[in-house]
Write a structure and sequence with these properties.
Blueprint lengths: L6 H8 L8 E8 L5 H9 L3 E6 L2 E7 L3 H5 L4 E6 L14
Antiparallel strand pairs: 1-3, 1-4, 2-3
Length: about 90
Amino acid sequence: MPTKLDPVLAAMLEDPALEADRELTVMIGLAAAPTERTLAELRALGLSVRSVVGDVLTGSARLGRIVEISAHPAIVRIEAATPLHPEDTPRQAV
């Protein structure tokens, strides 16, 4: 398994119950802010880019394309997005 993948994403890739065409939201760390060429290359690999801030981008891709996308030389880390949920109890003032 590529070392660029976070443990959650790596486990998803090894889970036979998950379909290869399952769409995932991902956060990607890049070696540098992406050029238009880099973004075009990532899109050609199957990444749908949603936002770019500096050297981090978010997007979505099919589970079956993640290893190929992670092999792009501009990518240093790729993580499965984690859903955020509101806390059940209000926070106390400190």
